[in-house]
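Journal club side-thread
Mid-discussion, someone asked how the predicted structure for our own chain would compare to the paper's figures. Pasting it here so we can look after the session.
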Amino acid sequence: MATLVSQSEEELKAIYERLSQDPEWKDILPPIDLPEEDGEPLEDSWHRFQMNVLIDSINADKTGKENFYVGGNMFVYFMVDQVEKTGYKGPDFFYVKDVSDPMKHRGKWVVWLEGGKYPDVIIEFLSPSTRKEDLTKKKDLYERVFRTREYYCVDNKIPKLYAWRLGNSEYKEIEPDEKGFVYSKELGYKLGFWQGKYLQREDLYLRFFNEKYELIPTHGEFAEQRAEQEKQRAEQEKQRAEQEKQRAEQEKQRAEQEKQRADKLEKELLELKKKLGIS
């Protein structure tokens, strides 16, 4: 199959229109008009929130620093007729490094339109209906065809994180550290479970953490952190202003006391001079 370097939609359409008129290309040219959705909803609301919290936190942390693409619940095409032949549509979450146009809108990831790039990290969210396929058939696909460097499966009911990193020829299990976290070389994060609220939904989520085991915040959490920091700074400024006011008041009181002592001494001196007949 022909592979094209990632281009804008307008450039791709122009290239396809030109090549489709060429007899040598028109029969082998891979399509660009592929379905972007199948109309099937996610397993449950947790799947949607779990996907979004991972995408949200990566975008909040890495945008402007690295050229990447992160997506979820969208088609990843590696074959024109893959759905008919394999039934595969796409992962729950995926991450691609070194993308040439990271800000381009994509309704699907088409490998041959992205310079032959496959996801570097894939995460599947296990459910009773997908568990067997995620741990077997999809694992084999990501290992042997995609050659995805890291593959994770999340079960938030046990909870358990299954983690593999691609070796020379096959996946090797990634051992968790002493705190139960798994380090992703591709993402540069530790992965671990977190109980808390995301968009007002309380649940157990897989989250990203830095080397100090500090949570990688979402846009909303980052805004809350900044607001809290601003609140703390404002409170500190208020306290400093109050302290300055108190110091100024104390200085005023000391000055007043000094004046009163000076006035008293001057009065006593005048009275003494008067008694001694000294003018």
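Post-session note: The first strand starts at residue 68 and ends at 71.
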